Amino acid sequence: MDTKKLAYFLRLHENGNITHTAKEAFLTQSALTKMIQGWEEEFHCKLLTRSRKGVRFTREGELFVTLCQQVLALEKTFREDVSSAADELTGSITIGVSLNYMSRHFPTILRRFTQTYPRVHLTVIDSHSEKLYSDLLNHKLDIAIVRGDYKWFDTKILLDSEPFCLVSCHPLTEETLCQEPYVGHRTDMDTKFSIDRWFFEKKLTVPDAALWLGSIDACRDVIQEGFGWSILPKICLTEFQGNLAPMTFQDGTPFLRHTYALISHGESTAPHVQAFLEALMTYHKIL
């Protein structure tokens, strides 16, 4: 159905005069009349009647007016949707996300991004940072969000820095640390080196772990129950009820854990990847 003709019929409904409507539509009166007669033949009904005062729409004519309005509204919506879809970003991104970042930050970022860019397909893999770094080197990921300092010579964005803390249920001094059971946890080599450095600078012996756990959350929960102490990043301590002491090195610099977005070579220039990086930086208030 020609929607332009439907618009002419609606204009006739507004004007009530075939002569005026034909003139506004740059049609002849006979062409407009023939168009209406064609519909009347197609639908087997009279759409309007003529008089000296103009035209009067029949009941069927009023129903056809409603139909014209609905069709034109649907056409407008369709054109807007097609135009919007043409402007939307598309593409695919494979993202590796560290376990702790996934549980505390990524769901909000994911929700915001997919609402804004529904046609960008994300494949998300969560794992330990060391594994993600290896996958990025082997071109299995487009972006890796890792905790810790990894050598990377392509695009690298610092997302967050958080302090490491001495964590216990009750206050401890450096002298009494080694008298309490130490709760260790899995971490990357860079953090392990920094922990060893801190003990060395304090002239303390790195304690053997009374417990060795797989996650920082498990360490926190054990200590919350009153067992021992540990060295934990602040990301897991927002609801911890106990003693927290931010750690510093001998030169006064804080003992920090950094979170980075590492981007595979060449991917940072893709518009959909740039949009995701902007979403990351907006979340962390870098932009």
From TrEMBL:
Highest rank taxon of the organism: Bacteria
Coiled coil location: none
UniProt keyword annotations, A-Z: DNA-binding, Transcription, Transcription regulation
UniProt xrefs under InterPro entries: LysR_HTH_N (IPR000847), LysR_subst-bd (IPR005119), WH-like_DNA-bd_sf (IPR036388), WH_DNA-bd_sf (IPR036390)
Gene3D superfamilies: 3.40.190.290, Winged helix-like DNA-binding domain superfamily/Winged helix DNA-binding domain
Domain HTH lysR-type as annotated: residue spans: 1-58
A Pfam family: LysR_substrate
Transmembrane parts of this sequence: none
Gene Ontology MF annotations: DNA-binding transcription factor activity; transcription cis-regulatory region binding
PANTHER family in the cross-refs: HTH LYSR-TYPE DOMAIN-CONTAINING PROTEIN, HTH-TYPE TRANSCRIPTIONAL REGULATOR
Family of this protein: Belongs to the LysR transcriptional regulatory family.
Name of this protein: LysR-family transcriptional regulator
Organism per entry: Acidaminococcus intestini (strain RyC-MR95)
Lineage of source species: Bacteria, Bacillati, Bacillota, Negativicutes, Acidaminococcales
Annotated gene: aphB
